[in-house]
Known about the structure:
The chain has 349 residues and is of the alpha/beta class. 18% of the residues lie in helices and 30% in strands. The strands form 4 sheets. Strands 2, 4, 5, 9, 10, 11, 12 and 13 form an 8-stranded mixed sheet that branches. A 5-stranded parallel sheet has the order 17-16-18-19-20, sandwiched between helices.
Amino acid sequence: xxxxxxxxxxxxxxxxxxxxxxxxxxxxxxxxxxxxxxxxxxxxxxxxxxxxxxxxxxxxxxxxxxxxxxxxxxxxxxxxxxxxxxxxxxxxxxxxxxxxxxxxxxxxxxxxxxxxxxxxxxxxxxxxxxxxxxxxxxxxxxxxxxxxxxxxxxxxxxxxxxxxxxxxxxxxxxxxxxxxxxxxxxxxxxxxxxxxxxxxxxxxxxxxxxxxxxxxxxxxxxxxxxxxxxxxxxxxxxxxxxxxxxxxxxxxxxxxxxxxxxxxxxxxxxxxxxxxxxxxxxxxxxxxxxxxxxxxxxxxxxxxxxxxxxxxxxxxxxxxxxxxxxxxxxxxxxxxxxxxxxxxxxxxx
Length: 349
């Protein structure tokens, strides 16, 4: 980050839609995965004639320095909003002062943003492309430079976006464009406490990332041993069990995206622990099966059962915590091998 941030501009948060707020009726409605209120919401995007992007954050402003966050950020957790920008927040006036080194003029573009977690990249950011229309004309695609693996950006070529159309947004720059298309996040938590997901966005992603020319025959296990948290403490025993059922072990992080699509499209049965690896389902065909290993019930953040239902994939989850134990969200755990073996016999059938 450039430390020369002598320039500053103040912006104001608003919960009210502003200029050119367009409902996309052709995309249906959001599903409420976890509902806290009966408030309805339609998928929408802003079509801004003149607007700002605040560095590598997920904040887009109209020309009057107004920012709407509800529906346009994943949640109100700061790390899902601000990227690594230099800012001051004024809670009293609901304002943000952005400190930046320079202002850069951009060509008309479509705001995707970014995050360095594969699930959030897929369903918060890449899935925004469901809002894109050819009628928008020739555009750049704005990607927040937040330390994402370059492999995340590789997904864009499967949506017809070439490298010369991509603009990487830096943290200490105020960007201004004469036209910004700024869609809602297809998966987000709103101000009412609802967790919302746009089913049409998931179908859109799977159409681009699943190869139905293959016949699904493979049994695949993705280990947790390289994960930073939620490790499976008896994973060697688990792998020994899975070998009896002809499961192959793969490490998607070491594979190209093309290889992941090929293997995923051939996968009939997938087993992995709760975490980023479960997003491998995006490559799997309808009618296939998933077992998700989990240390406890994570109702608030576990969207796999819903995603599997929309994708016509059979999903089973284990809850590995004994009733008298309380594991934290990211604690490691053991899998009950005997119980899993019983489930596997039915699963493989």
